């Protein structure tokens, strides 16, 4: 199911379905922007980081926190 065009002032806006949200930001121009929202990027390292923090506390999980930051940087985020 694709987006539905909606007429607004002088331009057409594409509305995405809930299923597609967060995965359609496209990089363009000289400044490459992340293709995903930060909350949706790096789910594997995010899960490991969060589980470690809940079980052991933030100070004991620097390894997982840094691994998640490294993954986010690879995705184009400035963290």
UniProtKB/TrEMBL annotation:
Alphabetized UniProt keyword annotations: Chaperone, Copper, Disulfide bond, Metal-binding, Mitochondrion
Keyword hit for Chaperone: yes
Biased composition (Low complexity): 1-17
PROSITE patterns (UniProt xref): CHCH
Highest taxon listed in the record's lineage: Eukaryota
Gene Ontology annotations for the cellular component aspect, listed alphabetically: mitochondrial intermembrane space
Pfam families found in the cross-reference section: COX17
Localization annotation: Mitochondrion intermembrane space
Region named Disordered: 1-29
Family membership noted in the UniProt record: Belongs to the COX17 family.
Name of the protein in question: Cytochrome c oxidase assembly protein/Cu2+ chaperone COX17
Organism for this UniProt entry: Handroanthus impetiginosus
């Amino acid at each position: 199911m694709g987006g539905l065009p909606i007429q607004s002032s002088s331009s057409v806006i594409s509305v995405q379905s809930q299923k597609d949200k967060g995965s359609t930001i496209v990089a363009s121009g000289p400044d490459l922007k992340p293709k995903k929202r930060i909350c949706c990027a790096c789910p594997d390292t995010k899960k490991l980081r969060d589980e470690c923090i809940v079980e052991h506390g933030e100070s004991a999980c620097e390894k997982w926190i840094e691994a998640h930051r490294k993954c986010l940087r690879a995705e184009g985020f400035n963290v």
